[in-house]
Amino acid sequence: MVADSGAATAKTRGANGLIPARADDLDQYTATLIEWHDLVRKTRFNIYAGQSNQREIMQMTTMAVLNRRIDQDILTALSGATQDTSTAQTMSLSLAMYALAILGNNAVPLDGNISAVISPAAHAYLMQTKEFASADYVNNKPFSGMLTMFRWSSVNWIVHPNISGKATSAEELYMYHKDSMGHACDITGVDSKVGYDEEQDYSWARATAFMGSKLLQNEGIVNINHDGSAYAAA
Could you tell me the pTM of the whole model? Predict the structure, then answer.
């Protein structure tokens, strides 16, 4: 359920002395859950010959694959947003504020729930921006520890390695409010199992989840068209 007051404004009493009534703007969206799995197998000999705990490794990698699916599911839903920053350019203070201004023009609240998903290239450009990296402007020290998530200008910045168009002149980055994007998952049904097949003498690990993502409010999402080609491998 997405609920707001629409474009309603406060009213004075009518000529009849009564306060005009209105209805809330309510929208019910449906997120279709899809089953997602990852299954890995290893023979007993491969487990015997492998280094470290191979059964534990199998379980860890299946969960990593499932988590990547969650990210991709959300990124795919974000790609349906129609607002963007026009021609692709390299990340800068101006580009970041441009995206934030678009949200502000849509009355999206700067309440700490705005996030931006950016590429490694966009992060590299930000690290060279004095307003981001200089102690004259910020309290944190970005060069003291390379994190994949940080907070700057009231926005949670997430560096993601699998955004669309990565390392090209057509990277798709996103800035969005938490309420504009929904991700549904059957939490109690998330399954991570490890087992052994005696007949065929192999071990297996499987991770399963039922989930789906849904764009809820287009006004709360901005596609930042970014040129990351200068940071592609030679």
Answer: 0.86
Q: What is the pLDDT of residues 59-74, one digit of tens each?
A: 999 999 999 999 999 9
Which residues have CB under 8 Å from 105's CB, separation 6+?
Answer: none
- Reading the block at residue 54, the tokens are 């191979």
Q: How many whole angstroms separate alpha carbon 152 and alpha carbon 127?
A: 12
Query: How far does CA 50 lie from the centroid of its chain?
Result: 35
Query: Quick one: which of 206, 91, 200, 108 has its CA closest to 152?
Result: 91
Q: Exposed e or buried b for every residue in 124-146, given b needs 16+ CB within 10 A?
A: bbbeebeebbeeeebeeebeeee
4-13, 176-185, 212-221 — which is least confidently predicted?
4-13
Closest CA to 76 of 227, 221, 231, 229: 221
